[in-house]
Amino acid sequence: MRLITPDSLRYPITVTRLRHSSGDHVERFAPLFDYQYKSKVIEGSRENPEGEEVERTWPSTFESETEGKLMRWDVTVGQVITKRGTFVAEIEEPCKHELQFGGLCVLCTKDMTTVSYNTTVRDTARATVNTVHGHTSLLVSQAEANKSDEEAKRRLLASRKLSLVVDLDQTIIHATVDPTVAEWQKDQSNPNYPAVKDVRAFQLVDEGPGARACWYYIKLRPGLKEFLEAVSKIYELHIYTMGTRAYAQNIAQIIDPERKIFADRILSRDESGSMTAKNLKRLFPVDTKMVVIIDDRGDVWQWSPNLIKVSAYDFFVGIGDINSSFLPKRPELEAKAPKPAKVVNGVSASDHGKSNAMTREVTVSEGNSQLATTSPAAEQAATEQANKSPLDQLVSMSGGDDLTKLKEQTNEQDETIEAQLNDRPLLQKQRVLDAAEEASNCAATVDAASDEDGAKKDESLPEMQQKYRHNLLQDDDTELKHLETSLRTVHRAFYDGYDRELQGSQGGRLAELRPGKHAKKRSIDDLQIVPDVSAIMASMKQQVLAGTSLVFSGVVPLGVNIQNHDLGIWAKSFGATITENITKRTTHVVASPQRRTAKVRQAAKRPDKIKIVTQQWLYECFSRWKHEDERPYRVHDEAAAENGPVNAANENASPFDAPDESAPLSSSDEEAALTEEESETPNGLPPRLEIQTELD
What we know:
- 31% of the residues lie in helices and 16% in strands.
- It is an alpha/beta fold.
- Helix 10 (425-450) packs antiparallel against helix 12.
C-alpha cells in the first residue's frame, strides 16, 4: 500500500527524521517519520499583554495507517512536502483485502468499515467490483477482476465459445398468472388445449398481492429446448432477468433441469443493482468484447451494440411482460397483422370471415402492457418516455436505489397480478371470440336457409359451424430458428477474425517455413488480438438495410419521435435511414394496412421507386438479418393502381374499401404529403435527415 499525506496536515511540512529503514516491520499507528511545520500564533508579554502574531516552528510525527513491511521510502530528510496526496512510503501488507464480503475481508476477517483519524483510503474502497451473479455483498478489487476476466477469456477461447446473456420474459418464455390456463389444460375439448397442454407451472409462496401464494404459468417459446442445446455448444449462457431470484430459479429449473446450460449463472433484479435498467458491466465489469445479448427490449440496455433484439414472444394474448412494472414504459407499435388462420375441424378461415375479423380485434398485441387496455395517463407517460433523449432515458431508469420508486413498482406489479387473477383476461377474450363465432354461425344459418341451392350443396355446414370454436392462443412462433442462425453467424465471424489475427501475429505460414534457428514466431498475448464482437455485429447488421430510406406513416402513436422509438432505433441499427417526408431517395413507406394516409397516397404515385409495406416486413428483416422480399408484405397496391400499373403483384395484401377521394386532407396531412425537394451538398452527401415526429 502506498501511503500518502492527508488533508489534515499543516502544509508545507519538512521531513526531519526517518524512524524506520527498508525491511522493518511497522505496526498500525506506529510513527514513521518526524516533521516540522510553521504556523503563526499570538504571543503576549508583560510589556504587550494583548500579544502579537509571531511565526513558530512545531515538531510532529507522521504515523502509519496500516501495518506491514516497509518496502521503501518515497521521501528524504529535509524534503519539503507542500500538498496532500504526496507519496511518502510503500508498505507491504500481510493482507491486501482484495476479496470482501458484507464489509469483512474474506481472507483475514478484518472489519473493512472501520476508519481512524489518519485514514486516507477506506478499506472498503479496495474491493468495489461485483463479479458474482447471485450476490451483491461479494466484492473484489480491480486487479482481481482483471485476473478473473483474463481467465474467463482464455477458457472461452480454448473452447471456441462466446458469452451469451439471455433475457427470460418474452424472449425465450412467456408468463401469466391467469388461472384460466390451468382450466384449459384440463379441458381437451377447449380450442386452446393444443396450445396450452405443455404449459408449465410453479408456485411462489411469498410473491403476489398480499404476499399470498401465486401460481405462474410458463409457456416456452417453440423450439427452446433445441435452441438452448445447440447454442450452448458455442456460447456460455447467462440468465439476466428483471424478475426476482426465486422467479428466475424456477424458470431455470424448467428450461435447464440438469443445470448443464446455465448452471448458477443467474442474475435477477435482486442483485442487478438497478430495478429498471440492465447493465452489461454488472456481469462483465472489465471487458465485453466476447459478450452477446438477446433480449426483446432494447431500451433497458440503452441499445447496447452487443444486443441482438428479438421480437417479443406474446403467446398469452394481451398479457405482456409480467415483470414490466420494473421496466421503463414505452409506447407500442401498431399491432402486427395476424397470420392466416389454420383449418380447424375441417372448416377453413374463409368460412369464418366474421369470426376472424373479431379475432383480429381481440388478439391485438399489447406489447409490454399487462392488460389489454391502456389508460390515457399511461399512454401519455409512455409517449413522454419515448420522446426523451437516450441520456434522459438512462437517468430516468437508474433509480434502482430509490425506495419510494421501488415501493411504487412493487405495488404496480401486485396490482397487475391481482388484476390477472381476478379479471382473467384470457377467459374474457375467449368469450368475445365465442360470441363472435356464435353470431357468425347464426348468420350462416340464415343465409343457408334463404338459399336452397346453397343448402343442398352443403347441408352439414351449419352443424359444423356450431361445433367450431376459434382458438385465442396460437403456438406458431418461429423466432428462435432465425435467432440461432444469427448467433451462429456472429460466432463464426468472430472466430474467423480471431484466427486471422492469431495467424498474422505469429508471422504467418512463411515464418513457419523459414529455416534456421532464428526463424522464431513473434510472441504475443492472444488476448491482445481478440476482436470486438459488438463491432462485428454492427458491421453485419448495417449491411441488411443499407441503401434503404424509410418513411413511417400510421404505425407509431401520435406525438412520438420515431428517432427515439424502438422501431426507428432498431431500423437504423440495420443500416436504414429515416426521413420525415417522402424524398427522391425514399425507397420504402412503412404503413398500416388499415390507413391510407397522405404519405401512402404520395408514395403510391411512384410505385416503381417506392414500396409500401407493413412493419412486419421490417420485423422479418430484423429477425433474419436479411433484406427480405417486399412482395408478401406490400399493402395499398390498389392505391398505386389508381395512379398506374404496379410492378409486383401482391397476393397477400389486405386492401380496404376504396377511399373517399372527395374527403379533404387536414392541414397536417397536406404538409406531410409534400415531397421534400433535396439537393446534393457540395461534398456529394445527402443533407441532414429529419425524423418523423407525428402520426400521419
